[in-house]
Every structure is written in structure tokens, then in C-alpha cells.
What we know:
Number of domains: 4
Strand order of the largest sheet: 5-6-7-4-8
Helix content: 55-70%
Distance between the termini: 32 Å
CATH class of the largest domain: Alpha Beta
CATH topology of the largest domain: Rossmann fold
Strand content: 5-15%
Oligomer: single chain
Shape: globular
CATH superfamily of the largest domain: P-loop containing nucleotide triphosphate hydrolases
Largest sheet: 5 strands, parallel
Number of helices: 21
Amino acid sequence: MESFWEEVKCQIKKTLPDHSYRMWIDPVELIEHDHHHVKLSSPNAYFIKRLKDNYLPIFQEEFSKLGVNDINIEFKVSSKKRSASVGKNKKQGAYPAVPLILKKSKQMHLPGLNVRFNSGRMFKKGFTFDDFVVGGNSNFAYSALLSLAQGKIKGSNILYLLAKTGLGKSHLSQAVGHHIITNSLSKRVYYVTAEDFTNEMIFSLKNKTIERFKEKYRTKCDVLILEDVHFLSGKSATQKELAITLDYLLEADKKIIFSGCELPDDIPKLNDQLKSRLTLGLVTQIDAPDYATRVRILKRKSKIFGYEIPNQVTEYIAQELCDDVRQLESGLFSVAAKGQLMGYNIDVELAKSVLTNITKAKKRITVESIKKMVCKEFSISQMEIVSASRKQRIVKPRQMAIFLSRKYTDQPIKKIGNSFNKYHATAIYAINAIERELKQKSVLFEQVNYLSKKIETGKL
């Protein structure tokens, strides 16, 4: 059941916005289980209510996809120290991105544990340079970030890492922090997303602690790792504050790593002042891994998880799943899990039976195919869905199509918007509008679930 739980979390991570997953799903842990009952830990009572109201059906659906039906899911407040610290944070009224000020402990750091940042986030244990599989798609990015971490890049300590989702941006970004902390080069490493930075600034403004916020990032930071830069689109106040912060860090010769799915020049509503600073240093990119690299990634993952996968099966998975590393991990786990749970030999035939639905659906899911499906379901033409019409019978299907395109394709929001003749900001508004209605469990909730199942089963 432990392996099932990890796969459930892995699949949920693919469907939820990154900040929602980190906030509500990642902290949940498996406590007890039997064939039809699962008990999960949560930090507090409010957390449990949030999970039941918004995420319980998602948990049940993902368990069902793995063949675990009629599952009874129970939540229990965890008695671990982690939940206690979360409770203290809430009592003090602190925003999650703001670090807790705790009394110093004489407890020494134990090897193997995740490293906690000054910003309150955690490095993932395996996100180090040693655990990253380097290929032709990532060789330059890997070398550049390692050199930056070691202080070997002359002339600039700023780097922008460009890659689509699931290719290793977070891994390499965190590897820099791991290297700097474990080699005692600095302890003042701040790892945040652009959304974290924005929310922390807003919290500081509301609570009249903005000077403390400015001091933290401008003068008490040696390394700033800022992910998901595209989130800053349209947030003018955050952009101005970040630009000033970068000036302070650059003047003090501090290290800065940015990552995003789009180049700064392609991010709409980003002011020129910030754009010039984001592209001031080295810009490097991670592409999709080639076949040989995918094979090495699968072998590394098999070794880490203790799977005994024959070479021909590994090669078959690498051949069929070629989009990103997360897809490779999911395919590997699914094959190993079916072999283990059903008592089957892990061979190419087993791999084919597991990967058939994944590859069929993946090959057919495009923005255009989603657009055609939505038009058919709502009896509207493709000309209407891309028109400027504000009629409700057109607007809602259009918003759903944009939402589903963002969920099931790797296309950036800007390109998705262009496919519907809409600006980037309009596409974001459409996605947010659907997400708000989904929380209300309205008729639209059932419609989106129905369309999602058609996409996932390849019935476009």
C-alpha cells in the first residue's frame, strides 16, 4: 500500500497546480492501511476539513485507477513535530512562506534528512548533482549550474534555467542549494517560487513588516533560487520589488538562479526593468531527454527504488515514453507495481499491457484535439469557440477547453491562448474561472470530470 500511496501522490501532482500540491497534498502521509481502509496524517483540524471538502474525491479516484476500489479514507491529526510547528505558525498568524523563528536546538543535523531552507521550504533528498542523470539534452545546463555552485563562473553569478515541466528544472535548481549548504559555503540559501515571493510580500505589507521582508532578501541572502518566474506576469508591484532586490544582490555579488517554462521576453506583462535583470547572466536550457538518456534515467530510478527490471523492458519503456522524466517514472512504477502485485514476470508483454493506454492517450492529446472534443460535446463550431463571442454558450466551453489544454498538454499558456485567438491574460483568467467553479462542485464539476475521463482514456 505504501507504493500505491506514493503513486497516488505522484498522479495528483500532475493534475494540480504546483502551489496547491505543495500546500495541501505533499504534507499528507500514510499512517495505517488494510485492503479497504487507509488512514492519512494531517497537520491540524482545519487541514483535514480542507482535504475532505476539496481533495477527497481526487484521492478516491486515483486509488480507483490503480484498482483499489471501495476505499475508505480517514484523516487524523498527526502528532509529529512537523504538525506542531505548523500549528505554532498558524497561531502566530504567520504566512507559510515566512520562516518560523525557533529556539536553537543542541540536536545535530542527521545525515540523510531533507535540508530546510531559511525561507521555510525543503530541498528534496534526491535532488543533488550526483543523482541527476546528465545527457546531451542537459549537459550544458548541468555544467553551468555546477560551476555556479562552485563559484567557477567568472563575470556573473546569475543564471536563468529554461525548461518545460517534468524535465528537471527543480532538480538542478535545488542541487545548487544542496551543494552550497552541504559544503558549508553558506547557510543563507533562499529557495522560493515566484508565487511564494509574491504572497510573502503581500503578507508583509498587510502586517506592516515590509522592512523585515526587504532586509531578508536584500541583505541577509547569499543565494536566491526563484522558480516559476512566469507567475510574475501582470504583478507589477512584485516585479518592481524583485527588480530592486536583484540590484542589491548583484551589487553584493550574490548567486541568483531563476527557472521558468518561458524566456523572460516571452512572458507577457513583464516590465522592462525586470526583464533586463532576468537575462543579465547566463541563459541555459534543458530539452527532452534522448533515447540513451531515458534508458540511463530508468536504470538509475530502478536502482533507487529497488526494482529488478530486465534490460529489454527498460529499453521498451524508454522507447514508448519520450516526453519527460515524470512520465518515465510513472511508467516504470506502473510496470513494476503490476508485476509485483499480480505475481507476473516483468517482461515486454507486461510492459506493453501497462503502457498501452498511456501511449495511446499521450499521442492523441493536443490543444486541437481537445478543442474538437469540446466543440462536439457542446454542439458549437470551431469557428465559434475561437471567436470574440461573449455568449454564455460559447464562453464556458471555451474556458473549459483552455483549462483542459493547460492540464493535459505541455504547451505554454501563451500558445494555448493563441490557439483560441486570446491573449495570455485571458487564458489565465479562463483557467482561474474554471478552477473556482470546480471548488463549488457545480454542474460544471461533473462536465469537466466527464471530459477529463474521455481525454485520459484516449476517447477524444
